[in-house]
Amino acid sequence: MGSGGPLKQKLGLSENAEDASAASAVPGVANSVPALEIRGLSYSYGRRPALMDIDIALPAGHFVILLGPNGAGKTTLFSLITHLFGTQSGSIRVFGHDTARDRGAALSTLGVVFQQRTLDLDLTAGQNLVYHAALHGMRFRDGWRRASEEMSRTGLAGEISRKVRQLSGGQMRRVEIARALLHEPKLLLCDEATVGLDISSRAELMEYVRALVRERKITILWATHLVDEVGPEDWIVILHKGRILRQGISAEILTESNAQDLASALSRLWGAA
């Protein structure tokens, strides 16, 4: 797996792969502890391996894309990070908290948007959010305040009293992101969040999540199989058949692979795997 010295320098990560926590401060980011640090992670469904020896260290306050085709292992990885699945080997740390030994502290810093929509269609957007806030231990008044704040930030303040089934697909996704941000997490996981959206809604959602990183310094791990969601300066982690083939800045990977576009670069990487 290539990690790339120039990439680590840009992101402020240590050159020592065995000590990613000893990172120098990322410019503009106060916390040098990796937002997400995964070491030697493997997972199998019975005898079928799904992930093999995964190593990732995400710096705080960045937008990172986990790129891979369907079946690459992206959802399995998210299930392990969120502790829906227990780890079989390796370790996962979220802002320094081990998900196996300090699960509560680790998960309290996480917000998650799953691939399948999980809103209650017969409740209003606001009711969905307040219910979720209550699961985080918020009183009704505080939950409603946070729901109103996040709906306003998404541009959906006027839709808070509408039933979810009356919203468009893009609006539902924004409500799910608002819900994931209610407890003000520092790391947001989004698993194929644009699935089923039209081109315009996808573009609007991508701009919104990138703005979250710029304006609120949230770390986002964005899983997708769509190369057109990758920008030239994005840090991408390329996952294929349960293995990380490459990590790096998109433009650098294009240069190193001597490819004209990312799709061509991926075809070469996947063909050689």
Tell me the fraction of residues in β-strands, as a range.
15-25%
Strand order of the largest sheet: 6-7-8-3-9-10
Number of domains: 2
CATH class bucket of the largest domain:
Alpha Beta
The major beta sheet can be summarized as:
6 strands, mixed
Give the number of helices: 9
Structural class category: alpha/beta
The quaternary state of the protein chains shown equals: single chain
Low-confidence stretches: 1-31
From the structure above, extract its key features.
single chain; 273 residues; alpha/beta; Rossmann fold; 2 domains; six-stranded mixed sheet; four-stranded antiparallel sheet; disordered N terminus
In short:
The chain has 273 residues and is an alpha/beta fold.
Give a written overview of the molecule.
The chain is α/β, with parallel strands linked by helices and 273 residues long. The protein folds into two domains: 5-109 and 185-272, Rossmann fold, CATH 3.40.50; 119-184, no CATH class. Helix content is 35%, strand content 23%. The strands form two sheets. The chain has a six-stranded mixed sheet, with helices on both faces. Strands 2-1-4-5 form a four-stranded antiparallel sheet. Helix 4 packs parallel to helix 6 (169-180) and helix 6 runs parallel beside helix 7. The longest helix is centred in the C-terminal third of the chain and has 18 residues, at 199-216.
